[in-house]
Amino acid sequence: MSTYDDFKDRFKLLASKNQHLVINTLSNIFTMRLIGNKTHGDLAEIGMVEFINQFMYDFKSEHVGKDLFRAKEHEEDIIIINEITKTKFPVSLKAYGDGPLQLSTDSHQKMFPFLEKQGEKIKDKEKIQKIFSSPEFSDFGAINVMPLIYDEKNKRCNIMIFNHTRAIEDTEKIVYVGKGQKFDVDTQTVVSTKGRSHPIFMFVDKSGRYICEVRYGGASANALQRGLWTHTKNALAYFDSLTNGWIDYSHNHTLVKLFRLALNSSEQGHKLANDLLQKDIDRLKQL
After folding, report:
1. What is the pLDDT of residues 144-172, one digit of tens each?
2. DSSP strand E in 54-188: where?
3. How far apart are CA 280 and CA 49, in angstroms?
4. 265 CB contacts (<8 Å, ≥6 apart)?
5. pLDDT tens-digit map of 186-235
6. What is the pLDDT of residue 1?
7. Residue 209 burial (10 A CB sphere; 0-12, 13-18, 19+)
8. 91: buried, middle or exposed (CB in 10 Å: 19+, 13-18, 0-12)?
9. Residue 162: strand pairing partners
């Protein structure tokens, strides 16, 4: 078992026994969307770091920080350390809506050009396995991604981990879907449609179900138009939930007011507030 797998199992156990802790933290994180649509992503990183440090006694975590993150050109946002084994591993933490989910930016643009050379419809199982074991696909599953998924309309959230191993085992064919096209699940063919502006290679299982996709990797592609992606609604069979399914959350308007006051108060006030907040966290641990 990898260090990340061990962490995921421990997190899932914590969520099953103390669900109120997970609901509380995720509610606060997604409340940040009231401040700005992208605010919750950055605050989720420091929020989950503190969650691990406060509630997961055999682990501690550190925020990598944007300067270090940019300098090293990694996709990871936090470092988690197993306090027992002293092993550490990086994690890319993503806060996404229930839908398309980026698993890797493929920043060196290796995956799509490589697949183009393999043909537009790859069905040979041996060839597919060679693709997964190729240097161009070395990042497939190599990055520990921890997505915090929210369904804002229904006020529910989930921590969903994509199962790369199952995806590799179950991929039956890889299909090229061009600009202005889509893969029709019923007919198992590529048909014309509107809306798609860049091509993809879609990975499909033996039942014809969507698993994941590699998006266009050309020079004009931005971060949203390239890399390895999946879809939380269309690929449910390839996700494991650390929260044991969807959990309801609510907005904490008092937290928004706290941020307003904190930004206009002094460090002395922040210290007093920190003491009060730590006492409240200690109370939550006893519930």
Report:
1. 999 999 999 999 999 999 999 999 999 99
2. 59-63, 78-82, 88-97, 100-104, 121-122, 145-151, 156-162, 173-177, 181-184
3. 18
4. none
5. 888 888 988 788 899 999 999 999 999 999 877 777 778 889 999 999 99
6. 59
7. middle
8. buried
9. 239
